[in-house]
Automatic annotation (TrEMBL):
InterPro entries: S-AdoMet-dep_MeTrfase_Alr7345, SAM-dependent_MTases_sf. This is Methyltransferase. GO terms for molecular function: methyltransferase activity. Keywords: Methyltransferase, Transferase. Transmembrane segments: none annotated. SUPFAM superfamilies: S-adenosyl-L-methionine-dependent methyltransferases. One of its GO terms (biological process) is methylation. It comes from the Bacteria. It comes from Novosphingobium anseongense.
Amino acid sequence: MGKRFLGLGPAVLLAVAVPGIAATLTKLQTPRGVAGAVLNPERPEADTVRDADRKPAEMLAFAGVRPGWKVLEISPGGGYFTRLLSLAVGGNGYVYTNATRASTAVEAWAKAHPNVSQQLVQPGQLGAPEPVDLVWTTQNYHDFKNNKIGDSDQAALVNTAAFAALKPGGVYLVSDHQGAAGSGATQTNTLHRIEDAAVIREVEAAGFKLEARSAILRHEADDHTQKVFETGLRGKTDQFVLKFRKPRGRR
């Protein structure tokens, strides 16, 4: 059936066939593109088994993803969200992935989905041939803090580049592993965490306005003292999800 799922009716009707997601999709009033993307049978099993932890329907709905959107995804890794975003924006949308190293998984998906392309960029740089509606990055911001480029760290350059890449009114979605209260950016290289307050300060300094934050990926059992890769914690870390907006009228 492939991408025909993108044209199905309201999320509540889709949920009838998949009872486990009924409450979530109905509560969020999930856009049809998002609901169709999550349920699309093209998604590999390696992705769908991670959905309980990564909450893709809630994440895309929180960002406001719509069919036809142009998206720039930073450091897509294995392409988990690349695949979801490409299905959600549909044939009239596009996903530009930016990374410093090529991803074979993203390349494979792009070969079968003409609304995705992989672009290699220098650290701190971003590129898309047109203004985008959404810049998206998950579990990467703390790594940007560990890379110095001249007198700046990579995060500062990424924030500036994200602002330039977005249409006025566009969304910048940042999610990462929460650091301990008051830790700021001091745990980025040790525990691979960063405090949300530090991210908010830095992103707003680049011209964005924080529009909303979400508890979608909160895990209160995580006390922020362990590396995010520890057995039993991986995939269950306490994570923040922040939605910033580029002010309208800004270019």
